[in-house]
Amino acid sequence: QVQLVESGGGLVQAGGSLRLSCAASGSTFGINDMGWYRQAPGKERELVATITRGGSTNYGDSVKGRFTISRDNAKNTVYMQMDRLKPEDAAVYYCNAERLLKTYWGQGTQVTVSS
User: Residue range 74-101: average pLDDT?
Assistant: First the structure.
């Protein structure tokens, strides 16, 4: 089993920045892709960004050029630097990790962006 704990969410003004972190624990050996997804009220969960163990990244169209995903394999931690935040970025952000064909999810962290 893999446990994921997100941190770093909060309230920020439009145009501001936040940095999310997600630490994996438990059976971390063999974790491959990690990523961030988000879900706003009344909407489906959507991709924000993913990163492979080797550092290859993929971003959702709405965040390209504003968000940067990174990871520290030694610490089993994935980060999301979010810049130039917009009100439409407000959502619960979930971390996920893939290990041995199973996907694990964190509990989520709330990001609120005031206009």
Answer: 97
pLDDT, residue 63, reads 98
Residues 87, 102: Cα–Cα separation, whole Å = 33
* pLDDT tier for residue 11 given thresholds of 50, 70 and 90: very high
Amino acid at 49: A
CA atoms lying within 13 Å on the CB side of residue 70? 9
Q: Who contacts 82 (Cβ-Cβ below 8 Å, separation ≥6)?
A: 17, 18, 19, 20, 63, 66, 67, 89, 111
CB 6 within 8 A of CB 72: no
| Whole-Å CA distances, 61 to 18, 65, 86, 106, 115 | 19, 9, 14, 23, 21
| Average confidence (pLDDT) over 79-87 | 98
Is the CB of residue 1 less than 8 Å from the CB of residue 26? yes
Mean pLDDT of the chain: 97
> Could you say which DSSP state residue 89 is in?
G
